[in-house]
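Lay summary. Proteins are chains of building blocks that fold into shapes, and those shapes determine what they do. In this project we predict the shape from the chain. Here is one chain we studied, written as its sequence of building blocks.
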Amino acid sequence: MKISINRLKKYIPLTESPEEIAALLTRSGLEVEGIEEFVSVPGALEGIVIGEVLTCEKHPDADKLSLTTVDIGAEEPSQIVCGAPNVAKGQKVLVATVGATLYPTEGDSFQIKKAKIRGQVSEGMICAEDELGLGNSHAGIMVLDTDLPNGAPASELIPVTQDQVLEIGLTPNRADAASHLGVARDLKALLGKDLSIDPEPEIKIEAAGPKISVEVENSEDCPRYAGITITDLQIAPSPQWLQDFLRALGLEPINNVVDITNFILHDLGQPLHAFDADQISEGKIIVKKLPKDSKFITLDEKERKLSGEELMICDPNGGMCIAGIFGGKNSGVSENTKTIFLESAYFSPDVTRKGAQFHGLKTDASFRFERGTDPNMPVYALKQAVKLLQEIAGGKVCSEIVDIYPNPIQDFEVEVDYGHINRLIGKRIEPTEVKSILESLDIKVVDESETGFRALVKPYRVDVTREADIIEEVLRIHGFHQVELSENLKTDYLAEHPVKDLNKLQYRLSEILSGQGYFEIITNSLTKPSYAEKSGYLDPNLNVEIYNKLSEDLGVMRQSLLFSGLEVLAHNINRRQTDLKCFEFGTVYQKTQDGYKESRKLGIFHSGNSSSESWLKPAVPFGFADLYTTVEKILEKLNIEPGEISMVEKAPFTYGLTLGLGEKEIASLGLVDEKILKLAEVRQEVWYAELNWDLLCKKAGGLKRYQEISKFPEVRRDLSLVIDKALTYDQVKSVALKAGGKLLRRIGVFDVYQGDKIDAGKKAYALSFHLQDQENTLTDKVIDKTMSKLIQAFQNEVGAVIRT
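And here is the predicted shape, written in a compact code that computers can read:
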């Protein structure tokens, strides 16, 4: 949810920085996930000034260019070469000075430099509308009608809105904060400042027009329904301030009427819906449920079958809108609309949630109705919208406000004990402070006594209905940070039992992989049954089937992370993003004899090139070594030494390795089989590793132990071994580590040879051995003795021939 700092200042006098406001809100439970800068004109027109064309002559060496001198308020006029056909002497124009950066409507930004154009010096640029990002016109330069002096900043003529926008991760319980007013209410309590809310406008009938009657058949699902008819509307683009407000929140302006409804929704938290009054049959609105399987075409022009459980806004001919969720195709506002019926209602959260879930529709309106809006807000919001429609769209009221509210929703009453407040918070808070905090949150304190009181909570606080909720309100405004730890805090234990924080472990590994250029993906746990049936890799009998599946493509729970990850690769490759490094932590599922089994895996994907082509070197495709290095680093970070390593040439790999730990497999990695790639519609090589995350977490060691760097130099010696082709490097390494003892620090392979210079069935390894003593400088005698041990071990244990 996005909140504009500029709009918050309309409610409350804020002198604090956006960062301070963000910290306050986060501390009180409205977590600010980020702060974005919004500028209505890209670059804020910095470096753009008003100029006057003093002379305009034809360029001596170009027919379509003009050579001008322009007064931009400097000591001397600037010479500028201009290609616009409409440039002329005496014009007031906008000039981008040398050093200014332009952000055109289309294309990349660029900086203005002093240049020579066809042999003539040009010290700036006279700008067209699209070159400044102000519109799409490139017919010619902008010619101004202004009395502002030459050299004045363009921002004095063209207003530039600058704003900071808070991105709030709203939790489901805080429906009251899903608006600027809601966030301002919290800031009022946190800062102890007054909240300024516009008074309720007076509404009078100004013109004759249609009278829309309303009948609510289901008051349980629609406790309150209000509306008013507005006529003589002029549908047009909204004023700049309204467009800027919506764009700051990530919304695209549509027209003045729709924009006003969106403004009210985000400002006050009350969704509105505008019906074209001429499309309402017989001038009658009926709020009811329609029979199951009734057909309804929504604004996105999709025909939907109703479940019979969703609430509908109807006229005598049928449905016009799914209440609180989505409008119908024929009832919305169009450019020809002159009269609207403006709806402002309170719908039951339950009925809205069921309807939105059934149709898979998530809108700004349903987001709020599902969580619970303020039943006392509809009429106030309606009047504020009418005021804007009168000011912006020329609308005239032609009816009284219809307000059907047969059973007003009462305030919640909660009994609170001071002793419980102090016990749950962990410190004593004075009753005067408790009362002050609650009243700053519009919670009335009545029937006070020495031991407690009764709290009256307005119905828009759907999350405050119990004593614990009241105590939470006191604590979040008082501040969690102000609850001190007791001086007597202690614990008893017999031995250390360090607890692994698995979330921290996963987060740390995610950071490491992201730092190596990987992108984290999160995919659906539901997948296609055909993957198990056709891959030859998974057992279809172990599929966990979904009884109420939404589609066949989402019919079973996944047995592996492979296919959902391949779908992500395919999506990117089809959009020409072919060089990919991705990882995913996810759960996989299998059916067992006793029920179901789920386990956590870590999947790693490579596809495409590990480095792009350049003038220095060609593109280098990913290979097995790239993937194995990543797996090795993960195990190293977790202090896990893999056991048996074995080759694998079965699905899902063309070839690869499995890494063991004891009797269990901890990882498998390799080149994905083409048959499997074809199933997922991936058209290039993919390297994949799947690690047993549950086992990794269980076996992960503690912190690494480090030792002081040796003061004594390291020595390197090389050997070339001819061994059987079937022998692996790990077997050779194991022999070396055993024979080399504590002096052998590390081993490296710097060459592998197979060819006609050695016997068939053989290969040659060129190995480097790094020797070092922590306590003494190595002598030739000690080095030679160690190398002799290594040579003897290689000859005796793996039948190696030492090449000289």
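What the prediction tells us: Residues 337 and 582 are 50 Å apart (CA to CA).
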